[in-house]
Amino acid sequence: MSLLPPGAPRLGLGLAALGRPGYINLGHGTDLPGKGVDDLKAQTWAVLDAAWAAGLRYFDAARSYGRAEAFLGGWLAARGHSGAVLGSKWGYTYVADWRADAETHEVKTHDLATLDRQWPETQAALSRVPDLYLIHSATLDSGVLENRAVLERLAELAAQGVRVGLSTSGPGQADTLRRALAVRVDGVCPFSAVQATWNLLEPSAGAALAEAHAAGWTVVIKEAVANGRLSARGLGGQGDVPPPLAGVARDLGVTPDAVALGAALAQPWADVVLSGASTPEQLGQNLAALQVSVTAEPLRSALVQDPAAYWGARSALPWT
């Protein structure tokens, strides 16, 4: 069953960098002209308006993305849009109190009490049931894929028509996904969707994502631009774009982020690839990925990093 409405682009919009004043994308702090709640709401709505006008119909949020769900739900109600496909996630609680310099921004708790609290919170914020509902950053060590009470509750939601799944993070994404594919509740896997990090620096989950897609799961790609490291802001600092990526972008007449997103879109198992744009201008650059043909393998071979090194560098990115 297709996730997107007929004719909708395979690019979606993720709100991780828009629903709260602090995030780990390179240069995030300078992308936000104001960091008050009303400032972020206005900026979020401006990016959502641009995304809708470009035909995007998939929008991704989470309970831990500050007020992202409420901004998204309010925008849909105000604009009167129908046909939007919404994804959200449970398992992290936002605790930064609207401070970009908070010591802790989100707390992970993958237990039944958190699921039972956050499911109605998500519905209230969106003013509807999400189409996809994912465990946020499931890992083997969190124990969530062995928690029978949680799995049975998720199976209940799946039986009600919600596409239930998980998002993954860290160097063990493939192992986590393969464990999820084997989960059974009363003989049936409750999961039918995964959101995973895949990009030219960290493509290690690709084979497992292909297996999920072959099993009929919806596959959503996040962080295709590697939190800005595969954009013009670069790996080593402002403007330090990897030469292979810069060369392809120059040849295609687009920005490096469009090439990175195009490489993700080129994966045959990817149903939706998320833009994490913080501004309408960034979104416009990202949208060019839909107009170019990227041969991903040479770039991947030139840029791929050891997964542990990649995730170590990601965890060191500052919140701004």
Overview of the molecule:
This protein has 320 residues and is of the alpha/beta class. The chain is 38% helix and 14% strand. It has helices at 28-31, 37-53, 68-79, 112-126, 148-159, 173-181, 206-214, 243-252, 256-265, 280-287, 296-303, 307-315; strands at 11-14, 58-60, 85-90, 92-94, 106-108, 132-138, 163-168, 193-197, 218-222, 272-275. The strands form 2 sheets. An 8-stranded parallel barrel has the order 1-2-3-6-7-8-9-10, surrounded by 6 helices. Strands 4-5 form a two-stranded antiparallel sheet. Helix 6 (173-181) runs parallel beside helix 7. It is globular, with a radius of gyration of 18 Å. It starts with 10 loop residues before the first strand and ends in a 5-residue tail after the last helix. The mean pLDDT is 96. This is Aldo/keto reductase. InterPro entries: AKR2_Oxidoreductase, NAD(P)_OxRdtase_dom_sf, NADP_OxRdtase_dom.
Distinctive features:
single chain; 320 residues; alpha/beta; TIM Barrel; eight-stranded parallel β-barrel; 12 helices
Briefly characterize the structure.
With 320 residues, the protein is α/β, with parallel strands linked by helices. Helix content is 38%, strand content 14%. It has helices spanning 28-31, 37-53, 68-79, 112-126, 148-159, 173-181, 206-214, 243-252, 256-265, 280-287, 296-303, 307-315, and strands at 11-14, 58-60, 85-90, 92-94, 106-108, 132-138, 163-168, 193-197, 218-222, 272-275.
